[in-house]
Design goal:
elongated; 352 residues; Immunoglobulin-like
Length: 352
């Protein structure tokens, strides 16, 4: 017997004699899970099951594999071919069909920094989706792993020595057919300074930092955001976030205390001299009878906004209705019903 799975998930089976003789007048049919002639186990087929002086018989199931047998034992379906003639029967098989859960998958790449931690054998692994506390092998920084089931995946990082702080577990979302990339940073436990700069736009604009080394009595640097610099003796020192055009660090100089055998983390916040325009400005339309409610996203480093209202699409300076407003939600109760208004929200800082 030969068996094929059709495009519509039905099956086609060909039952034939190999001894050169005909099948005498009788019946040929397929059964699931047993080679005994049991009507309740028979698989309904399109073709007639009568066998009259033929060498072979082709049978095509009328049902799909999912409906042929409701109970798959260990995800296996066993198919037999049976031939009945008078009070006797013969069988052939079994042919076993195994099914597997179909799922979508993507790839994952994890980069580890700094290179000193990578050289110290820092590595990563991920928890197998759907199997709690079952983990993959360890992978090196930059390794790409394929075929990870789509969804939320937990990543863990190895302990490498007492010199390094092990990153906490993190979660990433794997998408079907896509490469998900993430990175993680090990921080040195030696007497060191770890400098962080925010926001990312300031980093892209070239923001860096330097630190005063009391051992050599002069500043060292500049360093990029995320750098961990060793060689600083324990005690008080200063860190400067260096100027870049169009931005100001707040504050630009910070006094820190470097601790023994530990990383001291310092963060520098850069603010644009000319603030970004508020994003996602939304005004209600017809929702309220006596007011219009305007909301917008907060702007980094900004806690004051000017609000303009005009019947023209481009408000003029004289259309200012509120100055130095502190929130990012405003209720305009002075607008006239039935009129169309245009609103403009302006972020304001000390330099304006």
């Amino acid at each position: 017997m030969k068996l094929w799975i059709n495009d519509n998930n039905s099956i086609t089976a060909k039952v034939e004699r190999k001894d050169g003789n005909y099948f005498a007048n009788g019946s040929i049919f397929l059964q699931a899970e047993t080679n005994k002639s049991l009507p309740e186990s028979r698989i309904e087929c399109v073709s007639n099951d009568d066998a009259i002086n033929i060498y072979s018989k082709t049978l095509i199931s009328t049902e799909t594999l999912d409906n042929i047998n409701k109970k798959w034992s260990d995800d296996l379906l066993t198919i037999y071919g049976l031939y009945e003639h008078n009070d006797q029967y013969a069988w052939v098989g079994p042919i076993k069909i195994k099914r597997q859960v179909k799922y979508t998958a993507g790839n994952l790449l994890v980069a580890i920094y700094p290179k000193e931690a990578v050289h110290a054998n820092a590595s990563w692994k991920y928890e197998i989706p759907g199997q709690q506390n079952v983990w993959s092998p360890w992978y090196k920084s930059g390794d790409e792993v394929a075929g990870i089931k789509e969804g939320l995946v937990r990543i863990s990082f190895s302990d490498i020595s007492n010199r390094w702080m092990t990153p906490k577990d993190k979660y990433v979302h794997i998408k079907n057919g896509e490469l998900t990339m993430t990175e993680e940073l090990y921080i040195s436990k030696l007497s060191s300074i770890h400098g962080i700069i925010v926001p990312q736009e300031a980093i892209d604009a070239g923001a860096t930092w330097s630190a005063w080394n009391t051992t050599i009595n002069k500043p060292t640097g500049p360093y990029h955001s995320g750098s961990t610099i060793t060689g600083f003796p324990p005690g008080e020192t200063t860190v400067e976030f260096l100027p870049i055009p169009g931005w100001s660090a707040s504050p630009s100089v910070q006094t820190i205390v470097v601790k023994a055998n530990e990383a001291t983390i310092v963060t520098g916040l850069y603010c644009k001299d000319k603030p970004y325009k508020p994003q996602n400005v939304v005004a209600t339309q017809g929702m309220y009878v006596d007011k219009v409610v305007i909301t917008w996203d907060k702007v980094s480093c900004i806690n004051r906004y000017n609000i303009y209202r005009s019947t023209l699409s481009t408000p003029k300076p004289e259309d200012l209705i509120v100055k130095n407003y502190a929130l990012n939600r405003f209720e305009d109760k002075d607008s006239a019903p039935g009129k169309e208004y245009f609103y403009r929200i302006q972020a304001v800082n000390e330099k304006q």
